[in-house]
Structure formats: C-alpha cells, structure tokens
Amino acid sequence: VQLVESGGGLVQPGGSLRLSCAASGSTLDNYAILWVRQAPGQEREGVACIYSRNGGTTYLDAVKGRFAISRDNARNAVDLQMNSLRVSDTATYYCAADTRGCAISVMNWRFWGQGTQVTVST
Question: Which of 20, 107, 111, 120 is in the most buried spot, having the most CB atoms within 10 Å?
C-alpha cells in the first residue's frame, strides 16, 4: 500500500488543521493506521491510532481531547483532526499502516508515507 499525507501547514496556537492519509494499491480498512510525529532532534512518537476491524482508537496523552482520528472509506483515507494546536505540536507528521494492529512499536510499522509539516507559531 502507498500512503500520501496532506493538510499540513502553518497555524497559530489555538488553531486547527486536518491531516489526511490517502492510500493507493490497497484498501485502507484492512490496516490499522497510525499517525506519528517527529520534531527536530526528537524520536518519532505515535500520536493516534485506529484499528482495522472494530474502529477502536488510541491517543497519546498529550493530544487526548484535542485530536481525533477517523476513517473515510469512500476516499480510502484516514484523517487526523487537530484542534487547539500548541507550539509543542510542531513536527513532521507521518501516517503508517500495518495489518498487525496498534500495539506494535512505532518503528516496526510496515508502510509509511513521506510526511507533512505542521508548524504552530505566532
């Protein structure tokens, strides 16, 4: 499966962005999808994940209540709605896909997109 992220950009603190992870080559609902972010000089961290079968979701504590991950099967995509953005959310955001579910470690996910930059700044 090939993944392409979109929707990143520059936004002021408190603003919102909606990222999208679009797939080709396979149907995304067969995969768990993980949104990962990496800030300069830091390791990649999983932000939000959605399971393939039951649609269950998990979130990094730092984004709970602000971010929401969802599937759009008509577009074969998974979106990440980000509200109340903070300067600390600044990072390159990647989506990853794997059939093994959300519990596997970030670096072991099989398929990755190229990333989209999110910058939160005044």
Answer: 120
3-class state of residue 49 by DSSP: strand
pLDDT > 80? residue 12: yes
Question: How far, in Å, CA of 104 to CA of 107, rounded?
Answer: 8
> What radius of gyration do the chain's Cα atoms show?
13
Q: How many helices (H) and strands (E) does the chain have?
A: 0, 11
Q: How far, in Å, CA of 91 to CA of 119, rounded? A: 7
CA-CA distance, 36 to 115, in Å (whole number)?
Answer: 9
**Closest by Cα among 32, 112, 35 to 80:** 35
The sign of the torsion formed by the CA atoms of 52, 91, 44, 111 equals: positive
Q: Does 22 have pLDDT greater than 90?
A: yes
How many CB atoms neighbour CB 107 within 10 A?
9
**Lookup: tokens for 67:** 């971010």
